[in-house]
Amino acid sequence: MTNHVQPCIIRENARGYERIEIEDELMQNREIFLTDPVSPDSMNSLLKQLMFLNRDDPDKMITLYINSPGGEVQSGIAVYDWMKLMPAPLTTVCIGTAASMGAILFLAGSRRIMTRHSRIMIHDPAPGGGSLEGMKPAEIEKRLDDLKQTREVICGVIAEAAGKTAQEIMSVTCEDSWFSAEEAIQYGLATEIMGNQKGDDQI
Asked: What's the mean pLDDT in 27-34?
């Protein structure tokens, strides 16, 4: 098993020298990260951070940096719903790839920033829970009904952010649809590209 070393800084204070993990320092600045696949574990960690920051100051901006291939739908939607309900304003920043559920979480931000060469991918959800082999017709029908409902939820989220109809979104999500930063701006998925305007480097 690989041990991940957390980068840290050494800071001098009245008691001497203190070792501070960079992640903790960024958390104090209300900057948090999603750089893993969307899973129950990663969403549990993200949700706790969001709840803590909202309790700390419900009026101050939270910045979430995303570089994620996506993953499990229900865990991601649960956190998306909380992001839309929480009182603290949210800025999301795509710093590489925001794909699938990673893209949905990116869309939760009121300010949605992309770095110049980052990309977003949206598509329809895939059936989970393993193969349909051996399932009875009624079970398959129920699985497909659940998948259809999930698709409607996902397309509704994208449509709301992009200012389009669900039908327009469904015509795009029927396959893996990739957007560059410029294309994401034009389609309504992102609000700005970092560095395109004076002062944009400060989030």
From this structure: 95
